[in-house]
Amino acid sequence: MKKNLIHATAIVDSKAKLGKGVQVGPYSIIGEQVVIQDYTVIENHVTIKGDTVIGKNNSIGPYVSIGLPAQDKAHRNEDTKVIIGDDNEIREYVSIQKGTLGGTGITQIGSHNQIMVYAHFAHDTSVGDNCMFANATTLGGHVQMGSNIVTGGLSAFHQKCKVGDYAMVGGLSAAYQDVPPYVLCTGTRAKLFGINRIGLKRNGFTPEEIHQVDQIYNIFFCRQLVPSKALEVLKKELEDNEISRRFANFVMNSTRGLVGR
3-state SS string over 32-55? Predict the structure, then answer.
């Protein structure tokens, strides 16, 4: 670690562990339990505290806060964690709060995510890889997001909601129930508007695979079947592969019910 990569006005605790090539900008604060791996760049006025591990090659913008206590009256400054993967772009004013003993104890963000200005990740949230969160996306406590998800600006997710892989949630949307994989949903009380066809194409799905997703959507949301019956039809009518298993597993693990049309 080169000393000239740490700005003279930054406050970095002597017990913090910084990898090779880490940069810390003016007036940033790094707490004693923090671990930051190689070549991560931290801009000015960033606060990182608590038991926080940040991976390699991340870009963390001005006024970001990571590892501060949950905004929950039932919890105080508990000995819990934040874990962030590699190659994330975390823009200005993003807040990522640490987990709670009443939850998983970990707030976790994967790798290769783009997180735009003012996005908020509450306690015990989890996010996969390759997601894009537009400005002011807000995740309530215990929200679970998969991978390859896109959210629009000012979208919000109720506590304990789940969002499946390859889903897209439009701007100004509020999701109160679980958003299954592959779908497009939007609205002040979010509803489904078909499958995320463009997103699937961009992620390399073949026409045959997209047709299978269309069939899954038809079974679950167009035939007016209850989820248990729809699962039976899915297993009977469609090929047992990763695409159908991903959807079926999501439905079986849903706790808040699925968003509807």
Answer: CCCEECCCCEECCCCEECCEEEEC
Question: What does pLDDT average to in each consecutive run of 10 residues of the chain (261 residues)?
Answer: 78 98 98 98 98 98 98 90 99 98 97 98 98 98 98 98 98 98 97 98 98 98 96 96 98 97 93
Catalytic hit among 45, 75, 120, 123: 123
Same domain membership, residue 30 and residue 107: yes
Same domain for 15 and 120, yes or no, is yes
User: Distance between CA atoms of 63 and 117, rounded to whole angstroms?
Assistant: 10
In the annotation, is 86 catalytic?
no
Q: Residue 130's domain is classified under what CATH number?
A: 2.160.10.10
> Is 120 annotated in the active site?
no
Catalytic residue, from 31, 55, 141, 199: name it. Answer: 141
Residue at 216 is within a domain = yes
Residue 25 designated active-site: no
